[in-house]
Amino acid sequence: MESNIKEKIQFHKAKPEQAEEITTLVNSVYRGENSKKGWTTEAYFLDGIRITSEKIKEIINEEDGIILLAMLDEKIVGSVHLEKESTFCWLGMLSVDVNYQAHGIGRIIIDKCERYVKETFGCNEMRMKVIGRRKELIDYYIRRGYSHTGEKEDFLAAGETFGEPKEPLYFEVLSKRI
């Protein structure tokens, strides 16, 4: 991977006609055999799919939300869902193609998201929900300046979450002032 990848990545707001490609990316990162090539897989403790293209289209059309796409040579290599709530924004469904993981793209996306929500939505805080079992992922976000809020939520209470847990799961809420 080239060292100047940061300069090559471009960001675009997702369009409804990209829903199928985004769905394929997200599901390939979180579930199934392909996801096991990367470190973000949930396939060991969740069955089923992560998201449907119908849900992606719904998110794209939200007034207070956006899916940002990270493009490299006109290929979607990453995506993230951002949603404004009051004075903060939620960061969710951060996905980096397993073939591009470990090249700093996740960090580039997070940095872009923090700037974007501050400039576009006027948010001064970013929050996210991470499955509590995902210690390596929580540690990744802590290294990026996020911290535990102490809030926990039952996985099944999320309602919009797709997948069938193989074990009891919960979300931890992380937060960062931006």
Summary tags:
178 residues, alpha+beta, Aminopeptidase, seven-stranded mixed beta sheet, two-stranded antiparallel ribbon, 30% helix
What would you say this structure looks like, in words?
The mean pLDDT is 91. Helix 2 (19-30) packs across helix 4 (53-60). The protein has helices at residues 5-8, 19-30, 32-35, 53-60, 105-121, 135-143; strands at residues 10-13, 46-47, 65-72, 75-85, 88-96, 125-131, 147-154, 164-165, 170-177. It has a single domain, classed as Gcn5-related N-acetyltransferase (GNAT) (Aminopeptidase, 3-Layer(aba) Sandwich), CATH 3.40.630. It is of the alpha+beta class. The protein has a seven-stranded mixed sheet, with helices on both faces. Strands 2-8 form a two-stranded antiparallel sheet. 30% of the residues lie in helices and 33% in strands. The chain contains six helices and nine strands, in the order H-E-H-H-E-H-E-E-E-H-E-H-E-E-E. The longest helix is centred in the middle third of the chain and has 17 residues, at 105-121.
